[in-house]
Amino acid sequence: MSIGPAPEDVAPLARYRRAADYLAAAMIFLRDNVLLEEPLRPDHLKPRLLGHWGTCPGITLVYAGLDRLIGRTGADVLLVTGPGHGAPANHANLWLEGAHERFDPALTRDRAGLTELVRRFSWPGGFPSHLSPEVPGVIHEGGELGYALATAYGAALDAPDRIVACLVGDGEAETGPTAAAWHSTKYLDPATSGAVLPIVHGNGWKIASPTQTGVMSDDELTALYRGYGHHPIIVYAEIDYTEGAVADERLGVAMDEAYDRITGIQRQARSGRRPERPAWPVIVLRTRKGWGLPAELGGSPLEGTFHAHQVPMEDVAEDPEQLAALEAWLRSYRPEELFDDGRPVPAVLAVCPPEERRMGTNPAAVGGDLRRPLDLPEIADFAQEVGTPGTVTAGATAVLASWLAEVFRRTETTRDFRIVCPDELESNKLTAVLEATDRAFSWPVPGSAEHLDPAGRVMEVLSEHDCQGWLQGYLLTGRHGLFPCYEAFVSIVDGMVNQYAKFLKLSREVPWRTPVSALNYLLTSEGWRQEHNGYSHQGPGFINTMLTKKAETTAVYLPPDANTLLAVMRTCLASTDRINLVVAGKNPAVQWLSLSDAVAHCAAGASVWAWASHPAAVQERADVVLACAGGVPTVETLAATEMLRRDAPELRMRVVNVVDLVSLRTPQTHPHGLSEDDFRALFGDDLPVVFDFHGYPSAVHQLLHGRPDPGRFHVRGYVEEGTTTTPYDLLASNGVTRHDLAIAVLQRARGWASAGGDLADRYARQRDDILTHVRRTGQDPAEITDWTWGLR
Amino acid sequence: MSIGPAPEDVAPLARYRRAADYLAAAMIFLRDNVLLEEPLRPDHLKPRLLGHWGTCPGITLVYAGLDRLIGRTGADVLLVTGPGHGAPANHANLWLEGAHERFDPALTRDRAGLTELVRRFSWPGGFPSHLSPEVPGVIHEGGELGYALATAYGAALDAPDRIVACLVGDGEAETGPTAAAWHSTKYLDPATSGAVLPIVHGNGWKIASPTQTGVMSDDELTALYRGYGHHPIIVYAEIDYTEGAVADERLGVAMDEAYDRITGIQRQARSGRRPERPAWPVIVLRTRKGWGLPAELGGSPLEGTFHAHQVPMEDVAEDPEQLAALEAWLRSYRPEELFDDGRPVPAVLAVCPPEERRMGTNPAAVGGDLRRPLDLPEIADFAQEVGTPGTVTAGATAVLASWLAEVFRRTETTRDFRIVCPDELESNKLTAVLEATDRAFSWPVPGSAEHLDPAGRVMEVLSEHDCQGWLQGYLLTGRHGLFPCYEAFVSIVDGMVNQYAKFLKLSREVPWRTPVSALNYLLTSEGWRQEHNGYSHQGPGFINTMLTKKAETTAVYLPPDANTLLAVMRTCLASTDRINLVVAGKNPAVQWLSLSDAVAHCAAGASVWAWASHPAAVQERADVVLACAGGVPTVETLAATEMLRRDAPELRMRVVNVVDLVSLRTPQTHPHGLSEDDFRALFGDDLPVVFDFHGYPSAVHQLLHGRPDPGRFHVRGYVEEGTTTTPYDLLASNGVTRHDLAIAVLQRARGWASAGGDLADRYARQRDDILTHVRRTGQDPAEITDWTWGLR
After folding, report:
1. What is the reported pLDDT for A790?
2. Residue A243: is it exposed, middle or buried by C-beta count within 10 angstroms (0-12/13-18/19+)?
3. What is the pLDDT of residue A792?
4. Hey, is the C-beta of B286 within 8 angstroms of any chain A C-beta?
5. Do the chains contact at A491 and B494, CB–CB below 8 Å?
6. Which residue, A141, B181, B344, B787, is the most exposed by fewest CB within 10 angstroms?
7. Three-state DSSP state, A407
8. What confidence score (pLDDT) does residue A561 get?
9. What is the pTM of this model?
10. Pairing state of beta strands B417-421 and B339-340?
11. Domain residues of chain A, as ranges?
12. CA angle at A719 for the pair A718 and A722, rounded to the nearest 5°
């Protein structure tokens, strides 16, 4: 096949773009006279002008170019648009190709639909000014910049016939997450996965300054992308708009070259000879910002400068000169040639690919339609035997890993489950999954490397941003996944998860967006057992971040042992349209619940552990409640309980474990919230509660709002004290050893304030003795490290 | 000067490294027999082996190389060590050069000091296993990876004689923040700032996988760094440890070349001919991971593989074979040649630079010693005239900008104040600072660019990570700064600020760390006025993140108008060892307080606004408290107050404004916490409170723990509802319009539940009428947009 568009194909592209550019501009400015059938008057304008023009013509240039490529090749192309504020361009193209019409009968390709489209943009109750889940074909919002590229790679994984075209804005290209994502090809298997075609939209300007891409020389850009492992193709489209067809022609040549390179790499890899360092193409498109605008406005330069970024003529309503400039600009697209009574003329529509290949209706953008529920293995086959609570030990994540390995085995042909992880799979004791799959890696590796294979489905890279972006793209295109991470470092993706939670929240409100699989975090290497790595590795703040999200889209689980982790993870991997945060330990620890008890506990969200409570306190009047949430807090709370059972047998303690953290919230504020009666059955109305929490106490304080007398909850947790030391010393510095808890219980239990004084003093002395031992020997005493719930 | 070390200089370097490597290894393993004067026995070992060996020998190779360079040139070199878990290497070098001794008399360079050093590492109460503020010469922790490079550039800014050597681990090199930071040279002025010498420590492996740097070919690496704008120098040091001097020789050649290149660029720039695209050097060092270890252990490969990452021999206490291997390995350094009764022999010490040039005692690492307080302009000269509250309008950030411009003018010679900002200075209405300085930019720019100059002190880049890292390095080396940011996107640096807060918390506990200037955020373009950009731009979660930090290191301010913003910012720019979060509006808004009232309000933290309250409710019994925090909530609350004054004149309302958010906390939990009496004077003991909060209601809920009956606080705020719409509609979707607030007040005020019913219904109808108007016209009605506190 020859490279580049035939001469006769170029003029239609430029004409098509005139239609799309006109529509995009009209969306920003007009609410009436949308086809400019009469002279433009101020009352035709929207009263508030909201929108970003600068990047729009470039987006349409690429959209049209991809349409041509699709038409020529029949390729299955999904578009990820980084500069989400160029939404008017996307809308214009989506309307022209009929994608809008398909999802919304009000957006027909006629006068009524065109009018509705133009009016609805940036209008209350209409389309937002940025891309969002309401927009067909969209799997990435682009408000917070930087994540388009990783998302695109995630969408391409395990979809061998898909090409994900990814428009990267040159503002966005300055972000760290984008910079890191260029290395994604080192983890992409050309045989079993599809391809990403990145197109850097270099219009040279951000809001008010030149971009890095804009000031870099061609030599620098070429070197940079070659260094990233790509084959850069620079396209010069900084030409006059009236010569626009030249841009279409040049971009067409580049796209054909890129396509041939992509299919060449794939052909080679799929014939069994994977190329050693496949240099996938990247197109660097140099355009004029706000292409097509007048060169200047009121004596100031406009087209090709940062002044074109947002609404390029802000005073059109008041300034007749600007109004005239706007009208002249809009008329320069000659809408009368492009629309017939509001219907795009056939010559315009001819550019759009056949219906089943249009980017706006690509099924991959509605992942829920493609999603098949995982065939999850029975957790019973992997559960720990737990007889008497607290008498056996196991590492929760290691138990989970065997189950996850089976998930990998069952998805070997469907290839719709992946784990992403920032180089911590082994450290997090999940190594067993490598019995079922390998780490994905496509570049040549040293002989001493282990468990690496291009087709592996564990993706380890030292970039939480890559992990998050890949997983988002994977899930939104209908697949499943898990993100194990060091607890303290997952906050690196706080910004990304903020945006993803918003995407999910809105998706749930869009009728045609069917549910996608939950985004599941497994936070381990939790701070309490980062006594060796020290203070920087201790940080449970991601829980607080999750608690700011819309209740329907989030859940936070703190399974205290292996069987509860299995039960929780089964729920998570089956759930949809949610972000599940699971915090679980990797170290060998005391086990509490049989599988059936664990399942019941998880279903309840929080339960009284009767076997650990004073028999009189389980349902009746207790002196005090000992509550706990999280693995280490559960161990310490139960150890405190044991001490107190032995030393103060009259003390009527009720032990409550919370596994589903948001069950503490009222049922009015979270669907998991315990009913008033259930909450009262656990915590009473006015009982003193000593609550040992895995994370910051503030997280629990905020959840208790609306519950009876929250002031009675004395919450302990991580209070930002830590260093490299022993586990007990780390607990002590935060006031949450078993001794601290027992003392707190004695001080607060009804009727024990003075009766418990001597005992509390004794516990304080024991605590000090242990700390002295720690300082002297460098380790915790055996009574702490080897403790099990032995007294029963 | 000739390039590279003379042959006679190389052997001493290798010998010096043997001493440092021995010490680092000893730190990980030994607690007795630290000089191996007797055969190694299990009881000489630490009971818990904690530490990372893999990167240590490479760190020392670089440390020694820099020492030689310093000796040759007299350069002022500060070291930023990215792989903070290589702390044993840093400790060894710091001890050898005497930096440890200078800060801690127990760490003398003799038997006692050496024993103490070895024992203290990774020991409870001793040195953590990672770099931390307790370690001399350190301005970067390196637990959460990715921030060394940006920090280094920040330290080099405005310090023309300083070279910041920056060791970038090849794990860290995979992170987005590191990738973005390579472009920092485009913002660095060779005339007025110093230089960074990045050294990529490519040992090829992360915890369990090859690194990107490790698998990239020399061609790829060369292209990548050239693309970033650097001049890469690859050093092959993958040689046998016994041939180590060859590595010293090669690294020496590279360092000399790099140094000459750095000084050449600087000379040229300082002679008035700034080079157009200065290609600063970067050294890429290829070493063997865990260099110097045995090639294998128990049949498994060790040196040069990921198995060398952490403690390379884990079972030494139990496995006699491993113990023998450890002893043989340690003895391979021949400690008896290197230490004389624990004192480093003169031939070893000869490598260390003269005392005033040692990296561990570089004054820049103790920024508080260098810091000069800013000569802050009088805020009175910039304040808004505010007579009757609520009758004039102004944009708070624009007012602040004039004051900040004056700060820039007053620091023109000291050059110790900078603003970092992700391309939002203009958007955030801070443009007036560009009257006093320019945007820093060192690459050639198009003619239509405005306000760009290499020596400018505003740094705009579309990378929050760059901004944060630059500012951290700048502050920790004794300077001042401000980080204005879109509120919703500052969460991008959540992880970085977590770590910086930890660094500050620990620094405050280190006696020789004198206070550094506060890190000041100015969050503007707040969500309530991102009605145009939409849902992705609405997110006040950074407040919640800040509230998880140690109370002493954080403050959160929500100034409701321009004068309070001035008063708050004056406090912030004068404060030390803290992170100040300031949230303020950029849009023209109603002004409330005269400057003197604003100053008093800020000093109090929260006050009753008597002029807005029912006279009987100011001190005496009120029916209800209307509390507010934040600019938009203050406007809506006062508007609600006005409606209620008019329509329910008997309603005894007390209006409270909170400017210092953490004043809500108890004085036991935050130094800014209001006393019990002061809190009661505002909110009573049991008064109903309707609190309109700028951010998530959960932030206020958690702060109220420990206050009387927190359940009576009905907190409204952002509940994650939003899109592109009008400001009123955005408020309505979150239930916080003036009408919603007035209704909530009527429902809760004592004795008004039924009396206020009709009025509440009327307000609900008004609200619905306005929303109908909004949907129809696309804008808020004038009664909302033009509202001032007019009825008085």
Report:
1. 76
2. exposed
3. 46
4. no
5. yes
6. B787
7. helix
8. 97
9. 0.98
10. unpaired
11. 30-364, 370-589, 615-785
12. 80
> Are A648 and A752 spatial neighbours (Cβ–Cβ below 8 Å)?
yes
**What whole-number distance in Å separates Cα of residue A575 and Cα of residue A374?**
10
Going across the sheet that includes B689-693, the strands are B606-608, B653-658, B624-629, B689-693, B713-716
What pLDDT, on a 0 to 100 scale, did the predictor assign at position B12?
Answer: 95
Give the count of Cβ contacts less than 8 A between chain A and B.
Answer: 394
In CATH terms, the fold of domain B610-785 is Rossmann fold (3.40.50)
Q: Mutating which of A207, A702, A776, A784 best tests the B interface, going by the most B Cβ atoms within 10 A?
A: A702
Question: Is there a contact between A427 and A525 (Cβ–Cβ < 8 Å)?
Answer: yes
Q: What residues are paired with A230 via a beta bridge?
A: A280
Q: How far apart are CA B683 and CA B697, in angstroms?
A: 17
Interface of B with A in 304-323 (CB under 8 A): 304-306
Interface of B with A in 70-109 (CB under 8 A): 84-85
Name the band, by pLDDT with cuts 50, 70 and 90, for residue A339. very high
Query: What gap in Å lies between CA B676 and CA B683, rounded to an integer?
Result: 10
User: Using an 8 Å Cβ cutoff, are B456 and A309 in contact?
Assistant: no
Structure token pair of residue A536: 């920087």
Shortest CA distance to A638 belongs to which of A604, A607, A598, A611?
A: A611
Do the Cβ atoms of B628 and B634 come closer than 8 Å?
yes
Distance from CA of B148 to the nearest CA of A (A): 14
CATH of domain B7-353: 3.40.50.970
Tokens matching residue B241:
């440890």
CA nearest to A220 within chain B: B227
- Domain A370-589 matching CATH 3.40.50.970: the answer reads yes
**Per-residue pLDDT tens digits for A569-589:** 999 999 999 999 999 999 999
Residues in chain B: 792
Residue that has been written with the tokens 């391409």 in this structure: A156
| ipTM summary value | 0.97
CATH fold match for the domains A30-364 and A615-785: yes
Burial A396-412 (b: 16+ CB within 10 A, else e): bbbbbbbbbbbbbeebe
Cβ–Cβ gap B462/A494 under 8 Å: no
Single out the residue of B546, B538, B635 nearest to residue B582, CA to CA. Answer: B546
CA A467 to the chain's CA centroid: 9
Tokens 């509006």 -> residue? B585
Place of tokens 């549910």: A515
Interface of B with A in 530-559 (CB under 8 A): 532-537, 539, 541, 544-545, 547-550
CA–CA separation, A639 vs A194, rounded Å?
53
Task: Report the C-alpha gap between B135 and A461 in whole angstroms.
Answer: 29
| Residues belonging to chain A | 792
Whether the CB of B287 is below 8 Å from some CB of chain A: the reply is: no
Of B299, B361, B354, B316, the residue nearest B95 (C-alpha): B361
Flag whether residue B733 sits within 8 Å of chain A, measured between CB atoms.
Answer: no
Dihedral (Cα; B365, B369, B370, B371), 10-degree rounding: 110
Per the DSSP assignment, residues forming a β-bridge with B169 are: B201
CATH C-level class of A615-785: alpha beta
Alpha-carbon span A122 to A78, nearest angstrom: 25
Among the four given CATH numbers 3.40.50.1970, 3.40.47.40, 3.40.50.970, 3.30.70.141, the one describing domain A30-364: 3.40.50.970
Residues of A whose CB is below 8 A from B301? 448
Q: Hey, is the C-beta of B218 within 8 angstroms of any chain A C-beta? A: no
Least confident of A218-227, A368-377, B430-439, B445-454: B445-454
B292-307: pLDDT as tens digits: 999 999 999 999 999 9
CA-CA-CA-CA torsion sign (B361, B366, B367, B371):
negative
Give whole-number Cα distances, B762 to A158, B647, B739, B743, B756, in Å: 58, 10, 9, 9, 10
